[in-house]
Amino acid sequence: MATPLTDQEKRKQISIRGIVGVENVAELKKSFNRHLHFTLVKDRNIATPRDYYFALAHTVRDHLVGRWIRTQQFYYEADPKRVYYLSLEFYMGRTLQNTMINLGLQNFIENRSSCFLDSMATLGLAAYGYGIRYEYGIFNQKIRDGWQVEEADDWLRHGNPWEKARPEYMLDGSKWVDTQVVLAMPYDTPIPGYMNNTVNTMRLWSARAPNDFNLRDFNVGDYIQAVLDRNLAENISRVLYPNDNFFEGKELRLKQEYFVVAATLQDIIRRFKTTKKGTPGRTSFESFPDKVAIQLNDTHPAMAIPELMRIFVDIEKLDWDTAWDLTRRTFAYTNHTVLPEALERWPVELLETLLPRHLQIIYQINQSHLDRISALFPNNIDKLRKMSLIEEDGCKRVNMAHLCIVGSHAVNGVAEIHSNIIKTEVFRDFSELEPEKFQNKTNGITPRRWLLLCNPGLAELIAEVIGEDYVKDLGQLEKLNDFVDDAAFIRDVSKVKQDNKLKFAQYLENEYRVKINPSSMFDVHVKRIHEYKRQLLNCLHIITMYNRIRKNPTAPFVPRTVIIGGKAAPGYHMAKMIIKLITSVGEVVNNDPVVGNKLKVIFLENYRVSLAEKVIPATDLSEQISTAGTEASGTGNMKFMLNGALTIGTMDGANVEMAEEAGEENLFIFGMRVEDVAELDKKGYDAMSYYKKIPELKEVMDQITSGFFSPKNPELFKDLTNMLFKYDRFKVFADFEAYMKCQEKVSKLYQNPTEWTKMVIKNIAATGKFSSDRTITEYATEVWGVKPTDLKIPPPNEPREDNLVKGRYKPTSF
């Protein structure tokens, strides 16, 4: 006898029929079977789970294609101003489920994007994402004997059902001096808006060597070598450099940066010329900034500025002043870091070798810039030195952030505190010169991926009490404040969290063979491993809790499972040592019978987007504990807040605005503020003084130093302890005491589930500001000069053969 449907399943069935109709459900099944049979050449007897995934992905993509083509047709006809978002680091995560949600298909297919691109499509902006199609993504992290080991992430091994190769748009990607041309092959991925007809494009470039060979070399037997040399060109898109907040002037990285901007700008200009209406003949570029907005995501695509100047001056024959005016009005720059070691500074010698014409252009830009500074501040050599694009100290370098500021009409940070720091400290001279140029655009996250997709239980619960419109207008979550004292809602929110914790505990047991207590507090710290993010401070707290349990095993203790995850850049020794310390502490804590189930330490191997989607909904406490003034914004903090975790954090990055929105009393805020850090820097930070006056800190450090956590090699963590005592720029000891006290407050509140959940509801209700839809709306109106709108693109009809034959389809330009 069939099992009766649950209420939730009945609602989903109704939703299926409402969205696609009964006959369309059958059509989808038919399409799925067709792809399994004809596209993948498999039947159900031998099909693997991956085959089913690919068949489903192709089925869903079929639903996109008509809208995708129609969107591009609409852009061709209406010729709106287009926005181009350039980034060397697009992580799309799981495309299938995100796409199904945005198409309204999620509710009846239960199998298993970058936030800004998602929001651009949802808001109906004519927008394009551009980047590199890396053959190998950020490495896969393995933990062996407690150490991080890197393995290649061959993410394209099985193909990618979402991308469409476009060889017809292959371009000369770049040409280095005295070397062969590198071709750029575009691969397009559709980016659908949420429940609308807009489907935008992300275009990623793959490096290809040309097919022509030198016939003379071929005849003398060097054909094999000529074929092998193709790899040198194609290495450009081979691997993604990990973002480690340390700039390394590697030649391959510069080639990647130039490759993506050279190909992208050719494509942008091709599209501008194709859709430009006017007198036939030579294109007028007068309207270029009115039709094109280019957003530089960090300094990685900064070579776009001299490259556009080269195109305008050398190829299109515009005079310098006109070209410079058009260039500045086209570009805008987003800064993502205040750490000086992370800012790109390319050696002049390297640019001279690879891109001599671009270096000439940069020198000319700099000369005009310095002439202006000289006229405004006569005889002020120090100001000229500080504001020059060329740094003369030691090896001559080009400061790419300065190039971006001078070559853009708008510059923004990604949180209020970060934007203030770049205005008043990092780029103070530039900000004083052109204050109107500097803005703030606080980062945001897409609620489609970071709530509907990863936490359907909570998303549905919210929809039941305030309706479904909040998905496109996250500000509506403030209506949840009316339910803070509602006993039934409190119970339901608590149950959703517990269900997510059970699910994640089961996942850990299946995947990692680790058993955890799902009734314990899930205390989670997941992000790149870096000194400024202070995973070390968390580790010191773990050891302190461990020591307290050992001293008094019968004392009351709120059980915790501390979950830490993140990758260390392969060449970042200190970050790798931090991972080894965490895993070594975990080894001791997890195997101590005195501790039992009270405290567990888990290091999440290979933390990535798909793992984030599992751990974030299950988290009780979110750790956001960077030193005040070092984290630009963070978006993990927002994802945790939206998914019902409470935050323990410093007043840094977006934490500041989260505290403003929810009320500081509804976050666990501790430690130094930016002004306290500045004061301590002035006075001089003395780590030893904290060590001497805080007994628990002294005990913890003595344990690490003496080899308590590394008995086979007592000096294993010497580099870490030396850093903490002698040259810790991020002042871990200075915040230790405040952090311990704040953690005690956390434990106390956790013992009162009702009050804890009330605070959770207040936090969820305050996340409206942190939607990427709000962020993109601000960029659109205040930087790009475009208005977010539903483009009212008519839904596509299925293409019929007679339409295709008779050419009834309107022209399009991808």
Polypeptide structure, described:
The protein is an alpha/beta fold and 814 residues long. Helix content is 49%, strand content 13%. Helix 10 packs antiparallel against helix 11 (320-330) and helix 27 packs across helix 28.
Q: What distance lies between the first and last C-alpha atoms, to the nearest angstrom?
A: 53 Å
Number of helices: 33
The CATH class of the domain at 464-767 is identified as Alpha Beta
Do you know the CATH topology of the domain at 464-767? Answer: Rossmann fold
Q: Hey, roughly how much beta strand do the residues contain?
A: 5-15%
Largest sheet: 10 strands, mixed
Mean pLDDT: 89
The residue ranges in which pLDDT falls below 50 over 5 or more consecutive positions are 1-23, 800-809
Taking all Cα atoms into account, the compactness measure Rg is 28 Å
Shape: globular
Number of strands: 21
- Give the helix/strand class: alpha/beta
In CATH, the architecture of the domain at 464-767 is 3-Layer(aba) Sandwich
The CATH H-level homologous superfamily of the domain at 464-767: Glycogen Phosphorylase B
Helix content: 40-55%
Task: Give the key terms.
Rossmann fold, 33 helices, 6-stranded parallel β-sheet, globular
Write the layout of secondary structure elements.
Layout: H1 7-20, H2 22-39, H3 49-78, E1 82-86, H4 95-103, H5 115-122, E2 127-132, E3 140-144, E4 147-151, E5 164-165, E6 171-175, E7 181-192, E8 199-208, H6 215-219, H7 223-234, H8 251-275, H9 288-291, E9 292-297, H10 304-315, H11 320-330, E10 331-334, E11 345-347, H12 348-354, H13 356-376, H14 381-387, E12 390-391, E13 397-399, H15 400-406, E14 410-413, H16 416-426, H17 428-433, E15 438-440, H18 447-453, H19 456-466, H20 487-512, E16 521-526, H21 535-551, E17 560-565, H22 573-590, E18 599-604, H23 609-615, E19 621-624, H24 636-642, E20 646-649, H25 655-662, E21 668-669, H26 674-683, H27 687-693, H28 695-706, H29 718-726, H30 732-750, H31 753-765, H32 772-784, H33 801-806
Helix pairs in contact: 2-3, 3-4, 4-18, 5-32, 10-11, 10-13, 12-13, 20-31, 21-22, 21-28, 21-30, 27-28
